[in-house]
Amino acid sequence: MSIMASIMRPPYVYQSLNNKDVSILDDDFQPFDFFKIRVMVLEPAPDFDAELQCTIETVNLSDWPDFEAVSYVWGPPVFLKELFCDGSKISITPTLDQVLRRFRKKTEKLRLWVDAVCINQADIREKNQQVQRMGQIYRYARSVLVWLGDGGKMDECIDFLWGLSSSQHESSVTAERAVSSIETEMRRFFENKEEGIEAVQRFLALPWFTRRWIVQEAVQKNAHFYCGSLDITSHALNHAVFTLNKSTFNFDQHVMDHIRALERQGAYYEFPEQYGEDGYGILDILVRFSSCNCTNEHDRIYAHLGLANDVRSPFASLRPEPEHRFSQLSITSGSEETYTTRQSRQSIPIQVDYEANVEHVYADFAESMLNQKIHLELLHCSGAFRPELQLMTTRNKSWVPDWRLPMRYQPLLSVPWFNAGGEQENKPFFNYPWCSVEGLVFDTVRVSCPITEFAGGETPNRREMPPIGYICSALGMSRRYFTGERMWQVLAMTFISDHALNHIHQQQYHSRDHMYNGKLMKRDARERDMHTLLDWWAPWDDARLAAGGRPMDPLDMEAIVKEHSKSLHRHDSIGTFLKSMESRDDWGPTSHAVPSRWHSRIDEELEPYFQAHLDQMYRSDDSTDTNTNDKNPEDKPIDCEWRCQKQGYIWLNPHRRNTERYAELANETLRGRAFFTTEKGYIGIGPDDLVKGDTVAVLKGARTPFVLHQVEGSLAQWRLVGDCYVHGIMGGEALEMDGVLERNFVLV
């Protein structure tokens, strides 16, 4: 088409969708109302450079329209390209022009939902309506097409990720095995390892991975990622990142953690029965995706409302039942029975208001959470999202999280086995800018000891133990604690806050079915990790070295492992990967053109119990097999692959991975934290800027104790420093102690 012909075409005129406004504050609020959207029908073209032609249709989500949703980064708002539609034109960005040309088919029409085209960007009312239902739109899409971008060596990088996700590397659950797998695949697709590492780093630095709004777009189970001229499924990408994460290579940990979080969030929608009624609340999601960027600071909250199960908003997290979405059943439009909502009975109304001051939005959100939640969960986030205490001004309210700030540490949020504050007797009282909560003064900080490895913003190797040996030696590992436990047992749990950040234990804690007993799993993990810390510390026992001894050699360590083998692990396997029977023997590497067949990881915390279930089923099988390994568990090879011909799973030595696993959890727990002791002799960990004289308070209804700093010159006002773990009072023991002062804490 000539330039003159293009100029002569008028701009496309959008017709109103006539969607009505709804308010979550209305008594008759109904999230199941009809909702209209536009779908772009992209015309085919055999030539990549041919002009982009489309038509636009208006459809109702309740009619189950067939379309695919596109997820991409807009880029600079410079509209230099054109999309032609029904004799008119729509100005689009060069990025969207590239996206549409990449997805356009040669002979078939493609039905797409693209926000920049399907939403009238000039109509603020419509834009607000559509954006607030975006999560619902992506969930109704047949699949999500993710455009990551382009760049040097991206094709080789996608090939590398496909290879890393193949069945050949399923046993890469230790750092050593992961490094070996990565180096093997890099030799296949890159000239040298350095080139491969650089390409992977560029891939992880693609801007799509850091956008906040992509979370609700990417958690769909049918997401497909396109980069350069190749593509990769979300399943394969997650497998590859799992292996990258286990290695000792210095890849961008924030992005890998983000991709792993997307995988877990997506699993909630794909397998809701595994998460029960709890699911994920808004605070859990805000913490999990805190590192994501957004242009509008309001969206640090608003962008995630559609994913939460405990809020009621125009971002209603509606999702069709799987059997309805992919079947030909007749569905009555608008029927409440044809939809599933991710909102629990505790549905907190959150009114979206982009015109309000962002500080007021955060404060109103904080009040809503504290008024509606029964365990003061918001306060865990208040300490994690704040400036340093000495930098706080009167504009900073210590009880209101500032979601714009980077997270200082992982808050001890939603831990079901913590109950330090017992029942909540009264709701907090608000008189902005302060908030009053009931509680008791348990103790005072005596000694604060920041973990040196995390000072100065350093990023230590998360698979190596943090420098906590000096704390172990200073306190003495064999003396008794208040609880009657040995100090090595107490320290082992304190350094990881008794598994508070283990999402598998949180998810399974209340389960009790034929495979998983959550409380039994938690008890076994305590035994395992107590002995893991003891075995790590034993070679550097200062008393033994001072007496002329030497560090333990591998034979000494092997003796310790043997001595504690029953406590270290109930079973020998930690690397189970399920495989379908037809792909049982498919172990070779693959590429983007030959994807590996279906296989699925079992989390290592769940694996022993799942394995026991499979073993029980296998023993009940009357069929015979000549493979002696199948019939004699004692003959299983140590620290190497072992294939069971009945189920197709892998056996590995548990102890090496136990140490890595404990180190990972300790690093995650201690980052941004300080070890401390109290005047009464209790030990714990809290925020790294707590100081001697700070108060350890137990707030009524809170799951954990909190560290509070008394405002200078005031007897009644306190700044909230953050949550803490204090061994021996996490189950409500402080509430029964004599001589503990009860009072109201006015948080400012």
From TrEMBL:
**What Pfam families does the record point to?**
HET, Het-6_barrel
Superkingdom of source: Eukaryota
- The protein depicted here goes by the name Heterokaryon incompatibility protein-domain-containing protein
Q: Show where the Heterokaryon incompatibility domain sits.
A: 67-217
Q: Which InterPro entries match?
A: HET, HetReg/Transcr_Mod
